[in-house]
């Protein structure tokens, strides 16, 4: 095999002890061929023939299983084997080979036809179904998941009911192993992955975009209208210059139609600092070089709550790696948090111990 250019097969056959098992079977065949020439009693000759034949069958089937395992090893090391596992099918084939081997050994030792042994298994079908229930369920689940491409090696999956959150590192016939983020390993029965729901993050990696969905909670007491001086001051920022110009024209047209009603400030349409900040945040993520331009980008104001007014930033990074994703997300929110005071806004923050102490000191001084 090394000479013809298949060293991986040569190494695999040696590692899986295929050649050793064949080497054990060949001497048994030589003994069986020369057994009639030995001067022993017929009863002993028959017994030795059955024992040596059974042993030879076992070694031959062990060699066949070793060949299957070698093929599995070679396939797993290939590029295709990195994402699609055949371990479940190989394990099923090994179970069938061991079943055939057991039938042949029993038929040889009992001097009965293998077909007769198989017919006897029909009466035990209910027992066999009970014994191989998990195997049959796992076989159906493995086949369906493979046909529908539901799971591959290397997929990041979440299955809270099984305590799994990490990458698939092994797919066998009966179990799937998931390495969690804390480096622990969760073993999940294969049929559970088919019968119960789980989240697969593979499509996120293949799409090339990873979602950012985070909110800034604005202190409601800082939300107000902007006057002309403040609007002129905000024109320094190139990101919202076009927005301010367009809004100014729109507001002037609306207020012109209102006529004399604009004498009352409440009747006039005016810019707010929180609305202008949302426009700035939207323009900032749109021009960010590490934000995916082909996916949804939105900055929206959520329902006001007792913890402030949530302003949600919703977009996708163009890098799906976790470390890079967190860096990009951190850079965006670092900037937005730092720019808030420029819009005369303040982030909501629950009072801490130092805040309460300072308030108490102020109260004492006033007294």
What's the helix and strand layout?
Elements: H1 7-15, H2 18-34, H3 42-76, H4 87-110, H5 114-123, H6 125-131, H7 133-147, E1 156-159, E2 164-171, E3 175-180, E4 185-189, H8 190-195, E5 199-200, H9 202-207, E6 210-218, H10 228-234, H11 241-258, H12 273-286, E7 298-301, E8 309-317, H13 322-339, H14 353-366
Antiparallel strand pairs: 1-2, 1-5, 2-3, 3-4, 6-8, 7-8
Helix pairs in contact: 1-3, 2-3, 3-4, 4-5
Question: How would you describe this protein?
Answer:
With 367 residues, the chain is an alpha+beta fold. It has three domains: 7-131; 156-200, Roll (SH3 type barrels), CATH 2.30.30; 210-343, no CATH class. The protein contains 14 helices and eight strands. The protein has a five-stranded antiparallel β-sheet. A three-stranded antiparallel β-sheet has the order 6-8-7. A hairpin with a 4-residue loop joins strand 3 and strand 4 (185-189). Helix 2 runs antiparallel to helix 3 and helix 3 (42-76) runs antiparallel to helix 4 (87-110).
